[in-house]
Amino acid sequence: MVVPTMADVARRAGVSAKTVSNVLSGYPYIRESTRERVLAAVDELGYEINVTARILRSGRSGLIGLAVPELGQPYFGELADEVLAAARRRDVQVLIEPTGFTREGELAALREPRRRLVDGLVFSPAALDQSDVHLLENLDYPLVLLGEQVFSTHVDHVTMHNVEGARAATELLLDVGCRRIAAIGMLHARTAGSATLRFQGYREALEDRGLAVDDRLLGWADDGWHRANGARAMAAVLDTGVEVDGVVAFNDALALGAMHELGVRGLSIPRDVAVVGFDDVEDARYSVPSLTTIDPGRREIAQVALDLLLRRLDEVGSPGGSVRPPVLHVADMRLVERESTPRRV
Amino acid sequence: MVVPTMADVARRAGVSAKTVSNVLSGYPYIRESTRERVLAAVDELGYEINVTARILRSGRSGLIGLAVPELGQPYFGELADEVLAAARRRDVQVLIEPTGFTREGELAALREPRRRLVDGLVFSPAALDQSDVHLLENLDYPLVLLGEQVFSTHVDHVTMHNVEGARAATELLLDVGCRRIAAIGMLHARTAGSATLRFQGYREALEDRGLAVDDRLLGWADDGWHRANGARAMAAVLDTGVEVDGVVAFNDALALGAMHELGVRGLSIPRDVAVVGFDDVEDARYSVPSLTTIDPGRREIAQVALDLLLRRLDEVGSPGGSVRPPVLHVADMRLVERESTPRRV
DNA sequence: ACGTCGTTCTCCAACGATGAAGAACACAGT
DNA sequence: ACTGTGTTCTTCATCGTTGGAGAACGACGT
Fold first, then answer.
1. Is A117's CB within 8 Å of B52's CB?
2. Cβ neighbours for B44, distance < 8 A, ≥ 6 positions apart
3. In whole angstroms, what separates CA A12 from the centre of its chain?
4. CATH top-level class for B1-48?
5. Which secondary structure element, helix H or strand E, spans residue A183, and what is its range?
């Protein structure tokens, strides 16, 4: 016998297979002596349950999918760690599906669950947009959305304070005296999405102080929010000859790229130019100088997303029928001041 | 009918379920007209095969495990991306198991495969050591080891040129005139592992030029190779008052932390101190200044590890019996020169 | 004495696919 | 006409577990 089955355990303990199953799944009406015999048999045979058979019979795999663009990007790597940690606490496994910032990758991730084994999906879209929203509704498995790329009133959604975060970042710069603040990370293509919302926060903060947006201060990064593009966008802004005394970057990678470019040009941070990022990835703490940034509440996002998904899974399980309406959860945001901005006076 | 089964397709196409199965799995003896009818029925019903049932019957899940310490660390995040990409090309799914640098996490990862669904495991140990090697032998599933934490002649293993890499890094510094080269990332605890090997490369390079290792130049980072510890270790070295004109850090995060500390102390890189890292994570390209580092061949490592694992899985599948002896593959290494070191003369 | 109830356990039939074996048929060679 | 061979498809059992139904038993109230 290569690997023992429940029937083997049952035979050894002198009970039926179903009793073994009952013992293992915590069914209460088992005589103590029986339970002990069964557990002893399990031990002696080194029995471990066959998960596949259990899934086939019960219809639940205890596996959820996490579709994110790329783990190499620290924001998503760290987010994935948080989701995995939360999942471990709840005894769930996570299948990560990197979508590579491509439409095909994201469509594939949406199709996978039916074909693969996952019970539900946490999905952070980057390439799909609002016009694809119908793809996310009426899926035959529970879905939790992350980010601000696509919104639907039919799907649970966890997101962050984008406008408020960018506004707080910009206000900090204004408070320390900056008046020529560049925005790094503008996107042409999208009408929604983090770029638009963060730009909105930037604009609102300026306008509250009676300042207008100067197009020459907008740094475009249509190829993605990587460091390289942050450097490029910063260079483009500086090359217009416009005066710059502050930078709001729409994520930390852009900010670090921009700081790189500022350094190359011999500008001192924060003396000549103050810089604020967005995301609070681990790098931000150890750059030179360390980066002031917005902590968007990553841990909260991971935790809430998983909880929402598991709650939906329970709803499917118990046909008691009280289907909750979809939730939109916005995580708490926090400004983290470090060395790339001067102290507030 | 919520979700159609093979029997439904069969009924619709007027054939038996087994014929549907045969069509879908590419069995050759099917009349063309039958094949078409079946595929039409599949289309019409939107049928997708139930993976769980297939696994139960066939015994293979097409899922492999990847056990790494933490995705938030760019090296592992990027490694995971490479493994996932390679897996996608081969139509395999990957279940990532973060072990959190803990012994318990790693032991759990080793136990999981039996309980969970994976056919095999790619394992990058960080907390287990050579004394645990017996845990890795005689597992009842195929295993591929990564890294240099544990070695076994019974297990396939993919690793990198640690000694040669650290030696190349140190030689570069010597070539550009450094003579007081700090080594950042020393560990007390381990007798094997990357730290020891990279230190060995450092020492060999020095000794080849007739230089001795100066204990004051050794920066310890027993709490892990994070940026924070790189900064701390660098600070400790500088605080001894010893003169430093070069730094070999045992990974990029340590190097970036060390650069941070050097910056804080007003030392210019590379003018006052030249710095070399190890790993070539994406950050290294965009730090200020950009970091000279060793590319250990991450993509090759991911690819070869997956291939070795899949090859073992095939061996299990076909009892033809020619079990290949375990392989030790060492990936190609490459020195990437950037701004943190002066040009070689 | 009898029905009711709670406890403890068993039996059977699924879940949905596939491997093994073989039936039915056509066609060729003798 | 008969056997052999190749093609095409079917039947049946099976992977290992769990849901549903209910059997067996004792205790309890009436």
1. yes
2. B12
3. 48
4. mainly alpha
5. strand A181-186
Indicate the pTM of the whole model: 0.84
Total beta-carbon pairs less than 8 A apart between chain A and chain B: 141
Nearest CA of chain A to the CA of B151: how many Å?
27
* A96–B96 C-beta distance less than 8 A: yes
Architecture of domain B162-295: 3-Layer(aba) Sandwich (3.40)
In Å, how far is A208's CA from the nearest CA of chain B?
A: 34
pLDDT tens for B136-187 read 887 878 899 999 888 889 999 999 999 999 999 999 999 999 999 999 999 9
B117, B234, B339, best to mutate vs chain A, most A CBs in 10 Å: B117
How distant, in Å, are the alpha carbons of A3, A52, A272, B119, B202 from that of B58? 15, 11, 66, 12, 51
Domains B1-48 and B162-295 belong to one CATH topology: no
Backbone angles phi, psi at B339, to 5 degrees: -80, -15
At the second CATH level, the architecture of B59-160+299-330 is: 3-Layer(aba) Sandwich (3.40)
Q: Report the DSSP beta bridge partners of residue A220.
A: A186
Interface touch A53/B56, C-beta < 8 Å: yes
Task: Give the integer Cα–Cα distance in Å for B24 and B4.
Answer: 15
The string of pLDDT tens digits covering residues B282-316 is: 888 877 788 999 999 999 999 999 999 988 887 76
Measure the CA–CA gap between B332 and B345, rounded to whole angstroms: 25
Q: Which two tokens stand for residue A169?
A: 């970042």
Q: What are the tens digits of pLDDT across the range B106-135?
A: 998 888 755 568 888 999 998 888 888 998
- Domain boundaries, given as residue ranges, for chain B: 1-48, 59-160+299-330, 162-295
Q: Which nucleotide is nearest to B47 (CA to C1')?
A: C16
